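User: Can you predict the 3D structure for this chain?
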Amino acid sequence: MMTSPDGKSRTADLTEVKAALAAGDRGRLAGLLETMSRRPLENLKGADLATLGAASLFTGNVDRAEPWLARAVAAHPGDLSALHNLGACKAFKKDREQAALIFREVLAANPAATNSRHSLVAILTEMGRHAEAAQQCTAGLVHAPDDAVLLMSRATARYQLADFEGSLADCEAALQHDPSRVAALALMGSNLLTLGDREGAADAYARACRMDPSATGALRSLVENKLLDNGRLKPLLDRVESAKARFSSRQLCEFNFAKGRVLEKAGNLTSAHKCYADANALAAEIFPYIPSRIDALKSTMLSLDELAAAMPAPSGGRPGPIFVIGLPRSGTSLVEQILSSHSSVAGCGETLAVRESAYKSGLLVKDALPRTIRADAIGRFAENYIAAMESAAKGKPFFVDKMPANFQFAGLIARAFPDAPILHCTRDLRDIAVSAYTRFFPSGLSWTYSWRAITHYFAMHRALMDEWERRHPGRIRQVSYSSLVTDPDAAVRGLLEHCGLPWEEAALTPHRNARPVRTASVEQVRQPIHAGAIGGWRPHAPYMAGFLDRYDAASNSVKA
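Assistant: Here is the predicted structure, written as structure tokens:
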């Protein structure tokens, strides 16, 4: 029997480790493992290696856990617990592909391995592979039909896949099994809001706030979408604020945005902007804005367009796409809602299909140019894009891809789809700036969280759009928000004509369009077309010095 310098046997050490692990005593474990790591540990059995690996992982020492677990699995490939823990190490180190492979290996041997199923679903969700995540949830629910974690994970995946009815059903099922699951109520609210049930959404969000005062996302959704008046919001706001001391940075950020909006609605702009400033400072820490990265992306897009110009252009006549681009809050959602009210047009919402198709066809690698690009890459990009949008188009001859950030890809779009309308939404930058600055974007639009970042991003947008206009004259139609809302009849007729669509009266009443809407503008597009948002920046002018100092009204532009 091997004996340590202090006279204890290795067996005794391992016995103590097992006892501390069973008791969940992290402090004791950390000390034991530190001591054991300095002793010779050759010829350990696979089970003992697995114990040391599990204990190290439990204490958070992944670097120590991983080699022990790898040795344990090599010694006993059938040790599924050790294999799962090895996958957990890979996941912790953000080696998601390897972690996913390991968890799949566990599930192949034991499809009822709940922990591995949960971990695999979490990783697929992090990677944005929502269809696969939903499939894994469905497979897991065969073995554990009451698993609220899998039900909620599938609800989240279905929401991302625009299956709002399916997501709603999963939320309801999760609540049946676990009525205290606040996340299910919050996601239920988002589904109902997207489907146009504002009353149901308000009830779900309010229940979430009453159940858990840290449900700041639900409170923010209530406020931003104007689902309750200030009188009904006040007790919910007070309840959430009572828990502020234990909020995370993100929760405090969301709370301050919500409180700022309530104060603004009550006419107290000074206090509102104090909340907005605090909220944006926190958001900027969570989603830092890096100007050099934005400048590099702009250069990459221009270089990509130059390379694409030398490639064979796809033939025209491809069915369908209508691209709506511009800055967020510039009217892109309204334009999509108008177009999708036409019987020949499907509204697809905000998709990443353009960017993902650029990756898939080898035109981009992590937002940079690859070393080599195939000569047929533009044609492959067009084919990949059409294939990606096929189901969202719902069999209609035209579909709207409304992704504001696709203005970065306007040159590529113009070359890949020579017949497709590209609609660039424009609006008074002061209104866009205020609308962006006073709202939290969960997807992380990092440029919205300071006046300096806003001006830099706006300047980049203007420079890029000016260059696209120069390189692709006549291909991009400007759609003025003010024209659209002050003279909708003329503007909408011109819009349909430009897209090759015959006139239909329904296009003038987009608020009656019952399609699901999942954007920050969901509240606005459910209303009749109106000009009430024009000039909304004016009351905020005293608090906009960092932006207005760089704004030129004559050209509606800013200097970075």
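The first strand starts at residue 321 and ends at 326. The beta strands are 321-326, 345-347, 398-402, 422-426, 476-480, 551-552, 557-558.
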